[in-house]
């Protein structure tokens, strides 16, 4: 395959930088406790300093993989597929999600929303970041809003973001893992004072599940 052919396949979303894929339990948000097959794509320029998968940022470190191959693997494990990253919307998600849908699968995405929304989704988990805000379309279509709380200013940011999503979007505050001992009590107090919000925890980490 020539370099130009490879670039064309990447542009079409037929070739994607696959960082890892694994079958596990969804640990966060609305679907926590659900068995799901995770597809983690490389590539992200949002640059959160507390990111726990910084090795995903450089897409060139992860093997370009045909969408058909990714789908073949996914269909062997679960009816629920979670596409995450990195930032998966850096890539055209239309081919991958179309092929997954052809196999009757439920498809979720975890995204910062910073790029154009492509793909067909049964559930959109929007986790916005201050450095690169979501697009209007993602705000309108998000099923859940998950704001990571690292410090007190994140409560202000969370309210800003909540004002932009649709009325049916479920609102979550999730402690940044390294700050959990400090911010969990603050989140609990905030949710009790503002019950439109719910607490999301990274339960897979408490359970020592990958």
UniProtKB/TrEMBL annotation:
Tell me, what is an example of a GO biological process annotation in this record? tRNA queuosine(34) biosynthetic process
Which EC number applies? Answer: 4.3.99.3
Keyword annotations of the record: 4Fe-4S, Iron, Iron-sulfur, Lyase, Magnesium, Metal-binding, Queuosine biosynthesis, S-adenosyl-L-methionine
- Catalyzed chemical reaction(s): 6-carboxy-5,6,7,8-tetrahydropterin + H(+) = 7-carboxy-7-carbaguanine + NH4(+)
**Gene3D superfamilies per UniProt:** Aldolase class I (3.20.20.70)
Cofactor(s) required, per the database record: [4Fe-4S] cluster; Mg(2+); S-adenosyl-L-methionine
Annotated residues that bind [4Fe-4S] cluster are located at: 44, 48, 51
Q: Which residues form the Radical SAM core domain?
A: 31-210
Stored Pfam families: Radical_SAM (PF04055)
Q: Where does S-adenosyl-L-methionine bind?
A: 50-52, 86, 127-129
The text of the family note is: Belongs to the radical SAM superfamily. 7-carboxy-7-deazaguanine synthase family.
Assembly = Homodimer.
| The protein, known as | 7-carboxy-7-deazaguanine synthase
Native source organism of the sequence: Gelidibacter algens
